[in-house]
Design brief:
With 397 residues, the chain is α/β, with parallel strands linked by helices. It contains 11 helices and 16 strands.
Length: 397
Amino acid sequence: MVLVLLLIFGLIFSIRSCQQRAVETKAEAKAKKEALAKEREEEKRIQEEHTLHMVAVGDHFYHSTVIEDGQQESGEWNYDYIYQHVKEQIETADLAVVNQETPIVSSHDDTSGYPTFGMPKEGGQALADLGFDVITMATNHSYDKGKEGILESLAFWNSQEAPPTVLGIHGSAEDQQADRVQIVEKKAFKIAMMNYTTLINVGTPIPAEESYVVDLYDEETVKEDVEKAKAEADLVIVFLHTGVEDENETDEATKERIAYLAELGVDVVIGTHPHVIRPFGTVDRPDGKQMLVYYSLGNFVSGQQEISQLLEGMADITFVKNPDTGEIVIETCSMEPLIMHYESGQQGYAVYPLEQYTEELAAKHGVHQKTEETFDLESIQAYFEPYLKEQQFGTIE
């Protein structure tokens, strides 16, 4: 009898032990699963933190027809409608850059188009609302409204709830010395950015005593800035306002400046000013690495009328940083085609990505009143074809 009881107790104990081990095994499996999920989530977070998607667009300036187009019957001025088709691309980028070609003025009485520009503050607000993080303003039109235009532009950007980084213009000599090289921190990246123009319009020359208001391209200054930038940042990007207007082929002076920037070890150069797109690609650096160059993105928003001035580009670049070594790779780079659309009488301005543009829109474009050249989807796509290829890139740091 005792032996039977012992056997029963032993069996009960064995069953309970097995049940306990089963419970422990399930708990361990659940814990391991949760730990693995957390590990994967952390890996994803680190990967996301070390991936930076940047977009940049070209010259943004309002001719008189654009200024007038945004004046509502109610008396309000608003230009948000121009950007609705590219809004998502700008908003979702980690870093978005635009070249503000002209000063922004505080009074509607001071707005003006070609040849001496003054953009209404509502146009600047449309850019701010899109979420542009960096505004470049060193251009040939920077001084169109004198020093007052510089100060009003800076005051406008600084009045934003989240002020963007403004490059290329300054309110004082001290500000220029301190801010010519701007360090933009996004995710795990520290990016040094500079902006220079190689020319100022002859009709609005900058007095010697105010030379600090706009960053002019000068090799010694640029060398000093790049050395500082390389010591403080992971990436060095130069925005250069240069070139011959309305020429798709890159001029020799621009090539020489690009070669100099490569010699200094700049990582990326984005060109503005020609008002038409130019090729993009790589330039070898003396250190064996490569520099990515967009020679011109053309316009972003304007009232210009030639077909080539209406077909534009958006630089689209993805940087990836190795979290262990700090090595940075440009994973992809491309130029996304954009179209500056307007209709009869130069009204109804809007920027469209090529993928959203239709044959119906092309047929309604106001450019048909300007030229007898073919302007349809086929001709537009043919124009963009040399610029559409996404390029693979190598290590830059």
